[in-house]
Specification:
The chain is α+β, with helices and mostly antiparallel strands and 340 residues long. The chain is built from 11 helices and 13 strands. The protein folds into 3 domains: 31-130, 2-Layer Sandwich (Beta-Lactamase); 136-260, PAS domain (Beta-Lactamase, 2-Layer Sandwich), CATH 3.30.450; 263-333, 2-Layer Sandwich (Heat Shock Protein 90). It starts with a helix and ends in a 7-residue tail after the last strand.
Length: 340
């Protein structure tokens, strides 16, 4: 008998000490801590709960959330989770927004069962952490990402992101439109899955060069589209993680096909043509095909010389394609310069 009494006293003392430790932690915790019985009545709330709701402890104890006048949507949600823990013994997690006196607060709550000495669930403990700042940060990040995506998708240039192995991470709407692939479909694929091997190898080589030098590079790249090969000016640069290690390559490719076509001009005639032995000399001053005494080719021999000089002054070049009896085509090219 004495042993039973001693054991009982020891158990009671251990319980008292455990409860004391719990209250010591709960009373000083910044998290909201509440305990519920099987009728979903409050058995305990800590000072943090009072601070957020403005409801005194003595008002809480013995009352349900409904009796306390909590918002109906919160009552319904809380009742479901509390009953589920009592029924299953499995802890639950829920998130909710609470209209506190200082504004709407967002909480993440862990709901866990508490057992008596017989192994039965006697109460449920809820620990709610304020995640308002985290929610606001997530919302700002989401808005920022949406704005960035809108800008990217509004561009007529091709914008894309590949990882260190050349696998696509992101593309914009223009990329989807021209190459008939969606943002979801392309993730994890490489250029080899979309383009001929030679072109894909060129893209990969350019990406690797960017990663090796660690800075921006630009190339003219030929990319096949439905209406034929287009020439793009591709600017590529590495992206770095917080430790300075590159993890991806971003590319912005602008279609310059029309501009490249405009670099070349040609004038064609259907005359008697120019023999090959004269073609290298016709841009020299006073040079005329034929003798200087006949009028087969009238003129002073200055026209092509002056034309060549003008083109060279602009950094270009001029040439002729001709064959005797088949006419001549005079072509010139000029470098494009950015406006500014």
């Amino acid at each position: 008998m004495n042993r039973d009494i001693t054991a009982s006293k020891q158990a009671m003392e251990q319980l008292r000490q455990s409860e004391q430790r719990f209250r010591l932690l709960a009373e000083h915790a910044p998290d909201i801590i509440a305990r519920f019985d099987r009728e979903l009545r409050h058995l305990y709330v800590n000072p943090a709960t009072v601070k957020v709701t403005g409801i005194p402890v003595e008002v809480y104890v013995g009352k349900t959330n409904r009796e306390l006048g909590m918002p109906a949507d919160l009552i319904a949600s809380w009742d479901i989770y509390l009953r589920k823990v009592f029924e299953t013994g499995q802890q639950q997690t829920l998130e909710f927004a609470f209209p506190s006196p200082i504004g709407v607060k967002h909480y993440q709550t862990l709901v866990v069962p508490e057992y008596d000495t017989h192994g039965s669930i006697m109460s449920v403990l809820c620990v709610s952490r304020d995640v308002t700042d985290l929610k606001q940060l997530q919302e700002r990040v989401w808005k920022s990402e949406q704005q960035l995506q809108a800008i990217i998708d509004g561009s007529t240039a091709l914008i894309y992101l590949t990882d260190m192995q050349g696998r696509y991470l992101l593309i914009n709407s223009q990329y989807e439109k021209l190459f008939h692939v969606t943002k979801k479909q392309i993730v994890g694929k490489t250029a080899a899955d979309l383009f001929p091997k030679e072109i894909a190898d060129t893209f990969q080589a350019h990406d690797q060069e960017v990663l090796q030098v660690g800075t921006e590079r630009a190339w003219e790249e030929g990319i096949p589209q439905d209406d034929g090969l287009h020439i793009y000016l591709s600017v590529k640069f590495p992206l770095f993680d917080p430790t300075g290690v590159p993890y991806a390559v971003c590319g912005i490719s602008t279609d310059i096909t029309e501009r490249k076509e405009l670099e070349k001009r040609a004038v064609q005639d259907c005359g008697i043509g120019i023999a090959r032995e004269h073609q290298a000399k016709i841009f020299e001053r006073f040079y005329r095909v034929g003798s200087t005494t006949d009028n087969t080719f009238p003129g002073l021999g200055m026209g092509l010389y002056i034309s060549n000089g003008i083109v060279q002054q602009h950094g270009g070049s001029i040439w002729v394609n001709s064959a005797a009896g088949k006419g001549s085509t005079f072509s010139f090219s000029l470098p494009l310069r950015a406006k500014g």
